């Protein structure tokens, strides 16, 4: 289901999505702002700055011109919105996850059902009441908070290769000395460059990377014990403690969001 409007003379379009449908921006232009409200499932996004994820109830925000890839985990559903840039002044300038108020999904779910007089893809003017509701939506987006849990990737090829190998095989817990030997580089150099390019020590980065992969697997229905082992934790209690310290809830509580 899709709807196409003119809000203050500028284009504003919405569409719902569910698995197995692909999440596609409903708009018509390369220069439009795109956001995704997620009802269910987990989205993991890779952009030029690294990885970040979007949980149910959050919004993924994509300004014009940014490069990104989206991986959908679990049974996803939600509402995709495309906006003219003029409607988004003051919103984030980088792609990110946003935590928003409960008004946002309520308005989106109503707006996507508004009947259009024209055909699909034809932008129609709104009546005054509808304009007021969408203006409230924009106001609520401006008061949303930007999530800070981005996992930065090192820019140098050698360290980037190490980082991606860790993400692909988080259960292989190579220490920094082992990586240094494999890459024929000093462990001190790896440590220095990792800290400078990601803002974390090598050990901290590896832990957050492992937990990012764990979130994906929990969202896909795997049990906590299996996920703990698959991302390199020998002790499930340590995994639970690490997960809660980073995300504020236990892995079991997180997994329940996708049942």
Automatic annotation (TrEMBL):
Give the Gene Ontology MF terms in alphabetical order.
DNA-binding transcription factor activity; sequence-specific DNA binding
- Give the top-rank taxon of the lineage listed in the UniProt record for this protein: Bacteria
| SMART domains hit by this protein | HTH_ARAC
Q: Which UniProt keywords apply?
A: DNA-binding, Repressor, Transcription, Transcription regulation
Pfam families according to UniProt: HTH_18
Q: Name the PANTHER family for this protein.
A: HTH-TYPE TRANSCRIPTIONAL REGULATOR NIMR, TRANSCRIPTIONAL REGULATOR-RELATED
Q: What is this protein called?
A: AraC family transcriptional regulator
> What organism is the protein native to?
Oxalobacter aliiformigenes
Show the taxonomic lineage: Bacteria, Pseudomonadati, Pseudomonadota, Betaproteobacteria, Burkholderiales
């Amino acid at each position: 289901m899709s709807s196409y409007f003119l809000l203050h003379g500028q284009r504003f379009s919405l569409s719902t999505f569910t698995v197995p449908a692909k999440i596609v921006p409903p708009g018509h232009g390369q220069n439009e702002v795109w956001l995704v409200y997620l009802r269910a499932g987990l989205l993991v996004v890779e952009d030029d700055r690294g990885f970040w994820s979007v949980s149910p109830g959050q919004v993924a925000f994509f300004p014009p011109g940014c490069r990104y890839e989206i991986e959908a985990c679990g049974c996803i559903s939600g509402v995709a919105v495309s906006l003219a840039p003029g409607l988004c002044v003051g919103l984030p300038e980088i792609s990110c996850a946003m935590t928003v108020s409960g008004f946002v999904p309520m308005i989106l779910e109503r707006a996507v059902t508004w009947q259009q007089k024209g055909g699909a893809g034809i932008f129609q003017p709104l009546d005054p009441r509808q304009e007021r509701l969408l203006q409230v939506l924009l106001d609520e987006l401006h008061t949303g908070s930007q999530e800070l849990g981005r996992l930065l990737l090192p820019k140098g090829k050698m360290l980037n290769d190490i980082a991606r190998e860790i993400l692909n095989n988080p259960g292989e817990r190579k220490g920094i000395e082992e990586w240094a030997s494999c890459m024929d580089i000093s462990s001190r150099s790896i440590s220095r460059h990792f800290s400078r390019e990601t803002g974390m020590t090598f050990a901290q980065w590896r832990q957050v990377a492992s937990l990012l992969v764990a979130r994906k697997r929990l969202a896909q229905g795997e049990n906590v014990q299996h996920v703990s082992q698959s991302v390199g934790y020998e002790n499930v209690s340590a995994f639970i403690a690490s997960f809660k310290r980073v995300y504020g809830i236990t892995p079991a509580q997180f997994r329940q969001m996708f049942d």
